[in-house]
Write a structure and sequence with these properties.
Helix 20 (503-512) runs antiparallel to helix 21. With 630 residues, the chain is mainly α. The protein has helices at residues 3-15, 26-42, 56-67, 75-88, 94-107, 113-126, 143-158, 179-190, 211-226, 232-245, 276-299, 313-323, 352-365, 376-387, 403-412, 419-424, 442-449, 474-484, 487-499, 503-512, 518-532, 537-544, 549-561, 568-574, 580-594, 606-629, and strands spanning 252-253, 274-275, 348-349, 456-457. 47% of the residues are buried. It starts with a helix and ends with a helix. The longest helix is centred in the middle third of the chain and has 24 residues, at 276-299. Among the domains are: 43-163 and 172-194, no CATH class; 467-532, no CATH class; 553-630, no CATH class. The chain has a two-stranded antiparallel sheet with strand order 1-2. A two-stranded antiparallel sheet has the order 3-4. It contains 26 helices and 4 strands.
């Protein structure tokens, strides 16, 4: 639905070019940073941690303060560092492992090197060797290793003299690693099915993994290689993963893997949608791998053509995709209703700040001032300046822990977590320019349409909805008549809209539902779902991807009502929908169709929802294997 309109607007947006300029006032940005730092400090708890169950939030806060110019001897930084050190001994959470490595490395205290080494070994042990990914957890270390690390922490507390600061430009080698670490690494080399020295022993059970955990682990790998950890094999797996899973639109999805479907399904090769954040993750991962290869070739005097990141076609394609999902600063946009999508008073939220930090990491690491001829910094800074709260904080899906404020501050500071990578590849990567859409095929357009914009409203709904005003369309007039009708008349109108043929009635119901209450709201929703049960699976699959949340919700319920098991993979993918009513509908249909329930729970966190999706995917993969054998 609305495909031709969406295509025309997409083409217009891509065809517009301007000379990029800085669109934000530097003093205004600095004031926002100062307020943000003050707000972030206010969130520290008496125990030195920021309010989150995982220590990674505290490591991120400490890292952010350092990047914002706060000294390593500042009380908030010291408190964060002490909390991270204490938690690091038994840490297995992937995000936290990676962020702790980044924070301790940035802190530069030589006494933290044993912790960094141990955290790195756990990350190396947690990579799935078959697909190069990480999931939420890595193997735990054994009691012997715990005692060794605790002794190191106690030793540093007992010393009072000035500590040595590590120099980031001096690279260590494996010979510099602690004997215990080298022994653990030999255990990993022998194979994860063997008991490993320093670990409890036994085989490691890997999950499917995802590109979000994987990008953090990959960034930690880049830091770890400077500390002497052998990361080349792990990075080779990462390289293989991202190059083999890049989608037709140039982006990457969260899982980075094909969604399994039963034989006879309408989309046998369907893959989960690309997303803005994961596309940034893919580009950063490729740049890190290329940078590590450059370094290896130089150190080992490898002969042959010198590697140049500018020749990396996968990286270029990914950057082109990113260029298509960012915008120029507001005063550089062309005039026209299709471009007036930014709300008057900000209003972004969801995972917007996570995306902006992902964008900033890529652009800064690759030394890019523009992407797709777009001033990415001016655009993002405008969004952040408009959405900073009176207390200096930013609030999206990760606001309560301070993470969204960290993401925003790191963006505004242009923080570079891979400075040595940037120096190594200077002038190699160029802005690929705007992507041409001339002669685009339907399959290519559908692939591009799947790329999520990354910018979300406070209730996690995408802001960009280039649709005609409802009152100007026939479906809009029908919706308006339904909303304004007397209660006794509404039931008759809803019944008519449910039974009549024509897309206009589907659109009318979807447009009216948000403005209805009580019994009328319930009946209209039921009518919309019933309408869609009459659709073929191919059409229903399109509705599952519709821009209107009410239509996606109704389509998800219709899949369950008409028992369309061929669309089960699409329902699994919808468990990550930004609209919670859509998630609930998809979950209900999954339970009805399969007799299984892997979640997510009603008030599940994003991490819990991601875990539930992976469980559904694992279960469905097993069902497909059984079907293949039969």
């Amino acid at each position: 639905m609305k495909q031709m309109l969406a295509f025309c607007l997409a083409t217009a947006a891509f065809a517009f070019t301007v000379e990029p300029v800085r669109a934000v006032d530097k003093d205004e940005v600095n004031r926002a940073i100062s307020r943000g730092v003050k707000g972030l400090r206010s969130m520290r708890q008496p125990d030195g941690k920021w309010p989150h169950a995982q220590i990674g939030a505290t490591a991120l806060a400490g890292l952010t303060l350092l990047e914002c110019g706060v000294g390593a001897d500042d009380r908030d930084v010291v408190a964060a560092a002490d909390a991270v050190r204490e938690a690091s001994v038994r840490l297995t959470h992937t995000y936290s492992l990676a962020l702790s490595i980044l924070f301790l490395d940035r802190l530069g205290d030589a006494d933290d090197v044993p912790l960094i080494e141990s955290l790195m070994v756990r990350l190396l042990a947690g990579q799935n060797p078959s697909n190069g990914s990480w999931t939420y957890d890595c193997p735990a270390i054994g009691d012997l290793e715990v005692r060794r690390l605790r002794a190191k922490i106690v030793g540093r507390k007992e010393r009072t003299e000035r500590r040595e600061i590590t120099k980031p430009d001096i690279k260590r080698t494996e010979k510099d690693l602690a004997p215990e670490i080298r022994e653990q690494l030999r255990g990993l080399e022998m194979g994860l099915a063997q008991p490993q020295p320093g670990f409890p022993g036994g085989p490691v059970m890997f999950g499917i993994g995802d590109n979000s955990n994987t990008q953090f682990a990959t960034l930690a790998m880049w830091v770890g290689r400077r500390h002497g950890l052998p990361v080349n094999r792990a990075l080779t797996r990462v390289d293989r993963r991202f190059r083999s899973s890049q989608q037709a639109d140039g982006g990457w999805s969260y899982t980075g893997m094909p969604m399994p479907v039963m034989h006879g399904g309408p989309f046998p090769d369907a893959i989960a949608d690309s997303s803005a954040s994961m596309t940034c993750a893919g580009c950063l991962a490729l740049a890190i791998v290329d940078g590590a290869t450059l370094e290896y070739n130089c150190e080992n005097k490898v002969k042959g053509k010198e590697l140049n990141l500018g020749d990396d076609k996968h990286l270029k394609k990914g950057l082109e995709a990113i260029g298509g999902i960012i915008d120029n600063p507001k005063h550089l946009r062309p005039q026209g209703p299709e471009n007036q999508w930014m709300p008057q008073n900000g209003g972004v939220g969801g995972r917007t700040y996570y995306f902006l930090w992902s964008l900033e990491r890529v652009a800064v690491a690759l030394n890019l001032d523009t992407i797709g001829k777009k001033d990415w910094y001016g655009w993002g800074a405008e969004i952040l300046l408009e959405n900073q709260g009176p207390n200096g904080l930013w609030y999206g899906e990760y606001g309560d822990s301070g993470a969204d404020t960290c993401f925003a501050l790191l963006f505004l500071k242009r923080a570079n977590l891979a400075r040595d990578l940037s120096a190594q590849i200077k002038n190699q990567v160029k802005d690929p320019g705007e992507r041409e859409l001339k002669g685009i095929t339907l399959d290519q357009f559908r692939a591009k349409k799947g790329m999520k914009p990354g910018i979300e409203s406070k209730d996690s709904k995408p802001l960009r909805k280039p649709t005609p005003k409802a009152a100007q369309t026939e479906s809009g007039r029908l919706a308006d008549a339904l909303v304004k009708a007397e209660p006794a008349r509404r039931t008759e109108i809803i019944d008519t809209m449910e039974s009549e043929r024509g897309v206009k009635y589907t659109e009318a119901l979807a447009s009216a539902i948000p403005n209805l209450e009580g019994e009328a709201h319930r009946k209209a929703r039921a009518a919309l779902a019933n309408r869609l049960t009459r659709m073929k699976d191919e059409t229903l699959a399109e509705y599952l991807q519709d821009e209107d949340a009410e239509i996606r919700r109704a389509a998800a319920l219709a899949v369950g009502q008409k028992e369309s098991k061929a669309l089960l993979p699409s329902l699994i993918s919808m468990l990550r929908d930004p609209e919670i009513s859509v998630v609930r509908a998809a979950h209900a249909s999954l339970k009805a169709l399969t007799g299984q329930d892997f979640g997510p729970a009603l008030k599940a966190t994003r991490e819990e929802r991601d875990r539930a999706v992976l469980k559904w995917i694992e279960w469905w993969s097993k069902q497909r294997k059984k079907s293949d054998k039969e």
